[in-house]
Amino acid sequence: HMKNENGVLYKAIQAMSKKIYESCDKIAVTSLPFVDYLHREHSVEKERCIYLPQHADDKYLSLDLDSENNGIADFMYAGNLGAGQRVDVIIRAAAMLRDRKDFLIHIVGYGSQYAELTELAQKLNISDRIIFYGQQRSVDMPSFYKKADVLLLTLRGNNFVGNTMPGKLQTYMTTGKPILGAINGASQQVIRESGAGKCVDSGDYKGLAGIMLEYIEHPSDFQTCGAGAKKYFEKNFTKKIFMERLECELQNLIKHS
Question: Angle, nearest 10°, between helix axes 185-194 and 225-236?
């Protein structure tokens, strides 16, 4: 969303937020970029911040979501189709590969940009390579994940929110699929650290097309990505890990209070 930092409402909320932050002994952040943001915007000492990433449902971890070998590369985006998600980057990347017939893109979800995105696909003459499924029930998502060889992750990168990590990345990691992203900040760092896939900067549709092409032509280079994603999730993003870290931080806070 857009924010007017010179507006009266923004300044009032900023002042109220700073007062709240000053009253806290510790502040838990779900994404590392929040540490720099709080330090810069609200003068919060970095030592008072705790990195406590949100946990995600692990319901897909134990499921067999392997896709069938149909002779083409199946890419999938699942989630909201709003302006902030920059799904247009996926469509523009697909258009760079329009001469190829060995890939499909599955877009599962709905949002404010749905009509605009379908029109963009038609305008760029790539509609035959992209399937829009609309909104789907959560219970039916495993059948859609089984269609995918690779999951795509995009997000706006021109504001602070674009540097944080959307919960969708964690859900993606539980499916055991390689992840290709056009996204900044924490998400890019996690994708690279975990070995879950490859990433380019937000908005870089040419770069995304490039790593999509890498998968199309050399899928074996990505064969360990899904296992790496699952392993990273199990070490960092389960509810059990979250509760253990939270309990540890609370115990430390009590000891030093």
Answer: 110
